[in-house]
Every structure is written in structure tokens, then in C-alpha cells.
Amino acid sequence: MGEKTFLIDTHPVRGDSRLGRVWIFSDISDMRQREQALLALAWLDPLTGAFNRRFLLSRVEAYQSQAVTGEALLTVMIFDIDHFKRINDTYGHDQGDVVLRTLAVRVKQVIEACKDSILVRWGGEEFVLLFFATNEDHAQSVAEELCFVMRSQPIELGDQQFLTATISLGGTLFRPGEQVLSDSIPRADQALYKAKHGGRDRWVWT
């Protein structure tokens, strides 16, 4: 009810509903907010607001089951920020954190329209992205857009400092009979490796 959450209990008067019913409304808004805060701590990366590995582990089987139906293609991407160590060394770790947060925000904006998308901070400057695409061209267009939005919009670091950061990305489609964690992500990671050695600021599909 609006911003409030109520627990509702009802029972008949003296055991006979023909005499009427008693309705008890208990405001549990504070308890629900605490639960949501605990879930955020359990599932979210505190720096970027992306999901963490624990969340992906809890959902990956559901994603695989949904992919088996064949109604949409489960897309698996892994990407990271090019020369991130150089950014940290040049501008400091606080500014490196700004770059990570900016990347997460921009990725979420790009994938907002993608079906059942989840962005996961995989570790350090590396992220994993899962979503359902209508076809392979759609999946690849998302990869292209992710690279474009990073390179085309300088990141404001403060004190009138701006930095242009790029990403390298490896992508693949989940294949029936395989596992996302042991098959799809490692295959996407191999594509990421090729993107890095191909000059960075690009995506490679496999």
C-alpha cells in the first residue's frame, strides 16, 4: 500500500464466518526494509552496485533451464577495462573506483531493454553479463554498443579531469548441454583474451 508493507491476518468471528470476520493489519515496512538491506549486502557488490558472484551462483541454473526452452538465446559476455592498472597508477585508486562505477552505470543503461539481464562484478575490473537475446545479431549489437558508450563518453574524475576509458569484451551464446560456469564463461573469456591481444577497445565473438 504505497510505500508501506502490511501483513494481513483474518479469521472468522467465533469460528463462524457468517457472523463476520476480523482483519488485523500489521505494519511490517521497517522489517521489510531491513530484509531488503540484508539482501543487498548478500547479493550486491558495494562499490559498483552490480551483482556479485554469489548472486550468479544462485541464479545460474534457472538461466540454463530457461535457455533450454529455446524461446530466446542466453548471451554470456565477459569484459574488463583496458589498462586499468595504468589508470590506478596515474590517477589513484579512488579515481579507478569512479571508472568502475561509471562502467556499471553505463552497462545497466545499455542492457535496460534486454530480457532478464544481470550484470555481475566478476573480480577486480572484470564483469560478466548475462541476458536473453532475440538472435545472435541482437547479442552482438549489444556488445558493439557497450564498447561504443565507453569510448565515446569521457568520464569526469573531478577537478575538471576527464578520462576516456575503453573496454575489451568477449561474447558467446549458451549452447544446450553445457554449463554457464564451466563452459560458456570460459569460452567468452577466451574471446576476451583475443580482444585484448587484437588491440583492445573491441569485442570478439566465439
Descriptive notes:
The protein has 206 residues and is of the alpha+beta class. It has two domains: 33 residues, no CATH class; 162 residues, 2-Layer Sandwich (Alpha-Beta Plaits). It is 45% helix and 28% strand. It contains six helices and nine strands; from the N terminus they run ββααβααββαβββαβ. It has a five-stranded mixed sheet, sandwiched between helices. β6 and β7 form a beta hairpin. α3 packs across α4 and α4 packs antiparallel against α5. The longest helix has 18 residues. It is extended and about 80 Å long. The relative contact order is 0.14. The mean pLDDT is 91.
Helix content: 40-55%
Based on the structure given, which CATH architecture of the largest domain is correct? 2-Layer Sandwich
The CATH superfamily of the largest domain is Reverse transcriptase/Diguanylate cyclase domain
For the residues shown, what is the average pLDDT? Answer: 91
Structural class: alpha+beta
The CATH topology of the largest domain turns out to be Alpha-Beta Plaits
- State the shape: extended
Contiguous uncertain segments of 5+ residues: none
Distance, first to last CA: 48 Å
Largest sheet: 5 strands, mixed
Number of helices, where a helix is a run of at least 4 consecutive DSSP H or I residues: 6
The proportion of strand residues reads: 25-35%
Strand order of the largest sheet: 4-5-3-8-9
